[in-house]
């Protein structure tokens, strides 16, 4: 008998005696607790390496994810968003992680899809697993193991995993640990983890590029700024979801489709209370660089028009949208294969865009990440203590400082 049916006779008795009826028990709700935005894989001709196998066949991949909020039941989302052929998952399992490729004894659960152990991901489509009983704590780690029995082209993944994944031969989804295989830093097919939460949960989505995706942060240590934000907020019943894609842009496709194209899928589908938008530096910097040597520059007004569309979409769905200023990038990526990423003309565009973000009043709130991480003596560059060394991405300390600048008033308004 569930809580609701237990309360019904109590409520009737209370009314007969002239007493107040007991308060209704809130129904459990499914909430996203972890996400990795799907991207299309790319070939050898691109400026950055893919880092993922081109094909999988009779192999198991185990991926580890740290959830934000916890719950008593879990389910996963898989994506074949960019595949041109069906993908068969022969078996899938979830367990609490014991570190590395290991899983906690007694926590392993078989996942089903419509009651079946195997599932086919159709081209372009996502798949959601059935719920399974598994107690997961806030900020706990889960290990998701997928077996691919057939020869499968890998076309959908998340590139900037910042977390080891383990690839071995055969169906080893139930193994306590996976040894002797390949270690990946990408995330094939896995796009989300959901928990059934007994208490109301507020949701925050961090929507951005490589600086939200955590480029240059320490792998396997959860040092991205959304990770630090989750560390603070998840124990208070706030889910923090990372919808960053390295190389992402507001207006154009690149290492992922544009923000305008994926906002509904990666942000609004999570039914968030608020979204923090930090994106635009690649719109400014890619044209004329090694990425796009012949593309015309993007002016500030075009980027602002793109922000206005995202603001309008957020407001249409009742989502609070927080604008984040673009961080410094003078002389970015020294010694790398990427040239001409920065120029004084591009810096002027960044300054114009940041002035609009700060002063226009069009966002519901503003977090000034630029002011947080820049060097006061040279504002076009990172403060050395916050720089990862590539003059584009923060290091771990910079990411912590960014997360510390995001408070409840910014995210939820005054309550």
From TrEMBL:
SUPFAM superfamilies: SGNH hydrolase. Pfam families: Lipase_GDSL. It comes from the Bacteria. Keywords: Hydrolase, Signal. Residues 1-26 form the signal peptide. InterPro entries: GDSL, GDSL_Rv0518-like, SGNH_hydro_sf. GO terms for molecular function: hydrolase activity. This is SGNH/GDSL hydrolase family protein. It comes from Lysobacter firmicutimachus.
